[in-house]
Amino acid sequence: MHRIIEDPNERQWGMLVHIAALATFILPVAGNIIGPLIIYLMKKDEYEFVNEQGKEVLNFQITWSIIFFISILLIIVGIGVLMLVGFGIAWLVLVIVASVSASNGTPYKYPFTIRFLQ
């Protein structure tokens, strides 16, 4: 069973590290990685929850950046557009679910994620 984080500040920063992935709408190419990375680097030593969730969100964002890149390449054969739409919706839903989970103080593990950072 996962521990539940009681400290409201730690929960807030844990949520923000997930929400920061939405920076991709401001910086389309790398905002989904840069946003969480900034918060992770700022707060990882202060809050263990942010350290844990920051690695989780960075692993997810790197994995899905690779998936989106492959989808873009597959536009040439016609399936890429469908992949971009489907993966884009799944990405947004997973970011929202992870943000809500962290806001509630519960650690979130993204599915379909390569663990680059341990």
Automatic annotation (TrEMBL):
Which superkingdom, per the lineage? Bacteria
| One MF term in the entry's GO annotations | glycosyltransferase activity
* Record's bilayer topology term: Multi-pass membrane protein
Transmembrane intervals:
15-41, 62-83, 89-108
Indicate where this protein resides in the cell. Membrane
Q: Is Transmembrane one of the keywords UniProt gives this record?
A: yes
The name of this protein is: Orotate phosphoribosyltransferase
Alphabetical UniProt keywords: Glycosyltransferase, Membrane, Transferase, Transmembrane, Transmembrane helix
Q: What is its main location?
A: membrane
Natural source organism = Draconibacterium sediminis
